[in-house]
Amino acid sequence: MKRNKNTGLFENVTLQRKRALGAGFLIIIGMIAGMLSISPSVDSSNYLTTVSDQQNQLRTAALFQFLLVPTYIGFALILFPLLRKYNESLSLGFLSFRIIAGVFQIIALLILPLFILLSQHFLNSTIPNPSFYPIIGELLQHFRDLSNHVGVMLATGIGNLFLYYIFYKTKWIPRWLSLWGLLANILAMLASIFILFSLIDVISSYFVLLSIPIVLEEITLAAWLIFRGFNISIINKTRIKNKII
Hints:
- The chain is mainly alpha-helical.
- The protein has one domain.
- The protein is 78% helix and 0% strand.
- It has helices at residues 13-36, 40-43, 47-50, 55-83, 88-124, 132-170, 175-196, 205-227, 232-241.
- It is elongated.
């Protein structure tokens, strides 16, 4: 039976274009949702008195943090069928760590309503200068920071190392972009480790400097996927080499 030249051994160009567009737009959506998920009232020093009055802002931040979960996992699911053409183990590792990152996002999300409850109890307390409220609040803040900036970033970073290694070896995107992705994720993971051991704070110039490369790289990757897409000819060569029908 004769194969259509656009199917069978050769990757469907339209499918890969849609895959690149989907991945690129998910990066943009994830970055926007990430910025809108920031909760200034929770991160402020007066969170015990301000959170209760800014519940709507906190709920909005929680909504956008929830949206990060499908964008994180969806990005991996879109790319997985393509990545497994080169190496199924590495592609499964990428997908698995994206799921782990999504779980940490949910954990950080579930902490947010606790701040509202804590603030309400603090404001309604009849005990003069109750010291246990700040202690509980600091624990919640610290646990949320560990979930967001250690759990999520380390899981995402490890998964992205698998992703960019595949990209570098296959040349589906330019190698300079793959190398940038590898180095940027290593720096982001380094920032997470520094936070874990209390060497730097989340709100600090050191954290910003270590995070800027990955922000710029993801914007560049999103733009490349949306406007240029993957190198289809090399993808087809990969399929033939690996005998994938």
